[in-house]
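#structure-requests
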Amino acid sequence: MEANPHSTSQNPTASGLICLRARSTHLVTWLGPAWAAWCGVVASGRFDWQRQDWMQLALLILLVDGGWSTLWAALGGTDWATPLRQWRRWRSGKRLATPPYTLPGSPGDDVSRWLGQLRAWWQDILWPACGSAVLAIAVALPVTIVLGALLGMESVLLSIATLAVIQLGAAWESGRGFIAPGWDAIIAVTLPWLAGHAAFGPLKLSSAAMALAFALPWGSTWRANRAWARVLSIGTQLLAAALLIALRQSLAASTLLLLIVPQLAIFPWLQRGHPLSQYVRYARPWLMAAMLVAAWAL
């Protein structure tokens, strides 16, 4: 199976539309968070095309793309495990200067030796391997805090939830630098959609359901060479269409069903040996169109 393009052996520095180096160069991949946020805005029905709304939208995109996605790429896409394993066996480094009258073997002497080892490990191991990720986190974390505060309490709470999911996703993969598609879908689709809706109006259960329904196929496209992933991808979109029918949005539901057809039509590519990356590149635009249709109908 082909690797997820969000995974990288190089240290990411940022992500998404704003800083492209940490995400795939394919448009439909790095456009995801901003597109999902816009779908949430559309689902809220409160965007009035006024100057203030455009300012709010710009802050929102900066939050989900420059803040959340950067943190996710830096924390989830960096191999932290290898430097930490080396730290467990690290004994090199010149001890720092100790205070006067510090006795050999005393706690102060032990702290001085430990700090010297930590400095040497940071300079020789951690910084060369993860320095750009550390810088990205140092920039993105304050950006996330400030933008969340400017957008309101809902955005602050969603930012806290995003940080928790990012840590869970990185811990789930043991800090190896692999970004699993399932975790990526939550951060690229579900949370930005919720943030977009919350930034302009109170969240609705139907909008939250749509955010989850489209996150599942977004992640499962990178497992489309497996039967269960194909069933999950199409099945959740059918459930989204059923929800639209329940909301008496039959035209939108019909459009959504039509947008599923091209996704079905390119499944045979996988049987012909085409790489997953090519399938994702052509399947996700149809999925993104379905997201917008569903958001508009809400």
